[in-house]
Amino acid sequence: MGKDYYRTLGLSRGASGEDVRRAYRRQALRFHPDKNKEPGAEERFKEVAEAYDVLSDPKKREIFDKYGEEGLKGGAPTSGPGGSNGPTFTYTFRGDPHAMFAEFFDGRNPFDTFFVQRNGDDDDGDDAFTAFHVGGFGNVGFSRGRGGPEGACRKQDPPVLYDLKVSLEEIYSGCTKKMKISHKRLNPDGKTVRNEDKILTIEVKRGWKEGTKITFPKEGDQTPNNIPADVVFVLKDKPHGVFRREGSDIVYPAKISLREALCGCTVNAPTLDGRTIPMVFKDVLKPGVKRRIPGEGLPYPRTPDQRGDLIIEFEVKFPDRIPPSSKTLLEQILPV
């Protein structure tokens, strides 16, 4: 017979998400090893953490409700178009119950700040953080689970910004970036901190514009007295050796001679995917004039199957000097 996570938390199967949170809070406080020294309390504390990990996650809970613990951990088929032949979901609890406890209480150790006892009974902490007398302000209410009156005053640190530099080729096709950050994390005691490295994975979508922000909530330094900052990566275009970006268009500066500008020319326009498009121009090309090749630019962010244009921008090279005989001929040919 598999585990019954509802029974572990003292819940019925119709319990709401808030019921699950309250039940975990109550049971975790009851069996936490810092408070409960009875044999088996540590194991019950881990079981409570595993039950909360499953029932607080809608996907895991749905599978558990249908297939039980055996199905959850044995690779139950996920719901969807694939039916029973679709992909499977396999669950293994690898979490740290102490870290989960610290995160639930926002890094606060509730036993250090406040704990209620009535008639020699611990009341399981369910009302331990509801109201306090603070200084001369009388009865002041605080959100449950904040870990004490000072927890209500904590503010989140300002966002930590990093540049995420990408090439035009990476924007053209999309890419995956793995960014390593170093941040401080609370130890299970809720007081001391450790340095920890973490790899953040960013899926750069096709066509993303410069300035796009990718936010990782609360990945900044964590201390007993703060709410960790969000880590934000800001997309920046790397300078390109050939093209210049203008939104979803790319600009190719084509250098042509004065004779080509006046008499016509063929420009072999390169593309981001390595092709070359020959373009024949027979009209007069003035300096700075632009010609478009539709659909050869970058993907549009919202409709990546469609693309902007490749713009050819002409730079006309004028000669430094003209022989006198040529000047006379030009004076006769060119209009005033």
Polypeptide structure, described:
By secondary structure, the chain is α+β, with helices and mostly antiparallel strands. The protein has helices at residues 5-9, 17-31, 41-55, 58-74, 97-104, 110-113, 168-173, 258-263, 324-333; strands at residues 76-77, 88-89, 131-133, 139-141, 160-166, 175-186, 193-204, 213-216, 231-237, 244-246, 249-257, 265-270, 276-281, 290-293, 310-317. Helix 2 (17-31) runs antiparallel to helix 3 (41-55). It is elongated and about 110 Å long.
Q: Secondary-structure element order, as H and E?
A: HHHHEEHHEEEHEEEEEEHEEEEH
Q: Spans of 5+ residues with little confidence (pLDDT < 50)?
A: 81-87, 112-152
For the biggest β-sheet, the strand order reads 10-11-15-14
Q: Determine Rg (CA atoms, Å).
A: 33 Å
Name its key features.
about 25% helix; 4-stranded mixed beta sheet; 9 helices; 3-stranded mixed beta sheet; 15 strands
Topology (SSEs and partners):
Blueprint: H1 5-9, H2 17-31, H3 41-55, H4 58-74, E1 76-77, E2 88-89, H5 97-104, H6 110-113, E3 131-133, E4 139-141, E5 160-166, H7 168-173, E6 175-186, E7 193-204, E8 213-216, E9 231-237, E10 244-246, E11 249-257, H8 258-263, E12 265-270, E13 276-281, E14 290-293, E15 310-317, H9 324-333
Parallel strand pairs: 5-9, 11-15
Antiparallel strand pairs: 1-2, 3-4, 6-7, 8-9, 10-11, 12-13, 14-15
